[in-house]
Amino acid sequence: MQVTLESKPFAGIETEALVSYVFEETDPVQGRVAEIDQSAGGLLRKLAKSGELTGKMLEFTLIHAPAGLKAARLLLVGAGKREPFNSAGLRKVAGAAMRYLKSRSVKNFALLVREGDATEESAQAVTEGVLTADFEPDKYKTDKKNDKRIESVLIVGYSEAKRRAGEKGVAKGRIIADSQNFARDLVNEPSNKMTPSILAQKAEAMAKAAGLSVAILDEKKIAELKMGALLSVAQGSVEPPRMIVITYNPPAAKPRAPVIGLIGKAVTFDTGGISIKPADGMEKMKYDMAGGATMIGVMYALAALKPAVKVLCVVPSTENMPGGRAQKPGDIQTAMSGKTIEVLNTDAEGRLILADGVHYAKQLGATHLIDAATLTGAIVVALASVNVGVFGSDQAFTDKLLASAKAAGEKMWQMPVDDDYREFIKGTVADIQNIGSGKGGGATIGAMFIKEFTGDSPWIHLDIAGTAWNDDAKLWMAKGPTGVGLRTLVHLIMSY
Ligand code: BES
Ligand code: ZN
Ligand code: ZN
Fold it and tell me: Which residue has the higher pLDDT, 482 or 147?
């Protein structure tokens, strides 16, 4: 799908639909919407008076053959109250318009940004909104005869003077949305088509095409490096594990800039192992590699955006299966760091593979660590599918990430990880155990376990178990993989 910026006046634009947005306020017909109203002979004001056009968030008002416009339709999307409205709102409005028009077989539309919104940031948000809204998780449906597709989107409302800024935003938005959709494609694959080896191949192909260095460690190399925690999870499966390492090394990294290590959990299927999960809903556990996919997607974006910071991406990947060689509850494993772990529950496997991932990222030179993982059901209980759970050992670093999340329009909520939780994972027969001894605090306990392997490095853990997969379609996004976290991490890295 094409996205371009056009600085011609909106009234003369020939398109199947002109889209704009309306605020929920005493008079929703103001500014550019009042200009449209004038050419449409006062129709919008009439609709507002009658209560049909209110500006409530994502209310749709579709008008066919609007007078005074070259467009075949006029679509007004409610944007909610003017005050908290920002680029996150605009991204949703653009995405919702896209899905609304697509479902009505429209092939192209023009989105008119409101007065004051003709910025680089808005153009980026609109581009990200429409491209991520276009993603459909139906790759394996064979009958695509009746598929509806939007072919092109114009962004309008930019004067000649603002054009360059707008075009920059479109280019950036395209890179980020393509990376997010790339990550979503990886997550959407079922486990028979997305084994650790296949994930590694796809990551390697992406990295080579994008000009990033990449190393894939196979099971032999993983054993040589004594990654005992990763191996313990992998031993129950016939599919061998992989450790994927992608490096972005800019020629002129800023002096004193951190080396960021991105570690992503990539369990391509989580049956729970011997501590097996119930059958109901188990099919969803193909998305247990979403953290890894997000990190690989971030690298894809960085290769094009070229920040002046070195970034290492480390993705431990395995299946978690209850095979004849599978580890059993009570087994003691030695992680790469040398710490011993009593595995009391084989379903708490994400923290095991991340233990080695985090340690390896440090060994490779990462000074600041961020991991993303579909780690716990407990985070779903705490935050549902609304917020990503954020855990951090360094408040300044965590605050920077939370600010990036705001700017990128991804909802994240900080959770505690302090030493009072340490005794929950203190081991009886080994150094630590992989689940808590008490009750409650499951998401924090998972985070505390990973923290044991981060030493003094500033570290952030993102628990995306509740947010990496949409069970229901949203007006601006299809059901299925969301690619959550990618935009925040790209924003964070670009801000150094
Ligand atoms: N992959 C799961 C976490 C998960 C749950 C992801 C729901 C997405 C949706 C993880 O490996 C797991 O099984 N965690 C256990 C930990 C428990 C055994 C301490 C959990 O949360 O139940
Ligand atoms: Zn599990
Ligand atoms: Zn898991």
Answer: 482
